[in-house]
Model the fold of this input.
Amino acid sequence: MANVNGAAAAEDVWTILRLMRWSGAYLEDKGIKRGRLDAEHLLAHALGMERLELYLQFDRPLSAAELDAFRPLLKRRAAREPLQYIVGRAAFRQLDLAVDRRVLIPRPETEELVEVVLKRAAGRTEPVALDLGTGSGAIALSLAHEGRFRRVVATDASADALEVARANAAKVAGGERVEFRLGSFFEPIAEGERFDVVVSNPPYVAERDASELQAEVRDFEPPAALFSGIDGLEALRVIARGAGAVLADGGLLALEVGEGQAGPVGDLLDGAGGFDGVEFHRDLAGRERIVLARRAHGS
Done:
């Protein structure tokens, strides 16, 4: 791609289609499975257009300035930096969220967690929710945007993450109903506060499994949002112990957990006491990734 690394020669013009094809193959050679798709997103971002617009202009020659804008983005993705961090955005349900290396990139599994919470809370009148470890604000803002929640409190131990979340809230309908608080899990919750829903996508990767993660995750996403002790259950233990004290009678606890963790988390909740049974929900891949429990009345 010599001419993309300098001015395009007249006899060797780079059109949009040619660049997409070359860049897609280049990324795939670097071990990126969706190389062509990622290349399209990067080029659309560099050109300031929607991805599908590329195909409406597929034979348009690119200027030297446009190639210069695209080249560093391609290099960053080839170095395995996540696409979402490069373009600064991540889609989550109905939201388009700003993300960077201060926050975890929201995942499809977490979209399913929100869906379950919305369905379970649909019968409540103006419920109040608590989102533990909010990160970019994806869960809290989706609940406020899509649900009937009167208020959502979102906590995070990272001031940097809350800065991202607050910026996202300012651009989301319903974001004004989300209150962000700095502190680890339940620390910012006042004595006597009660919630109809407590939801969390906490850190749940075991430190011993770090080497098994994709480079995009291991080398770029914030470790504090990923890792949770030797077995990955440290944060989930904290939540299991503390959730009953902040849930209203009949309130819902909804947790995203790692593969193989549903059973151990169910045991943690049974051991904590005060819950009426535990349910496991499978994700689209058939894995038990969501754990639900109701606070027993009068417990």
User: Anything to note?
Assistant: The longest strand covers residues 247-256. The first helix runs from residue 16 to 29.
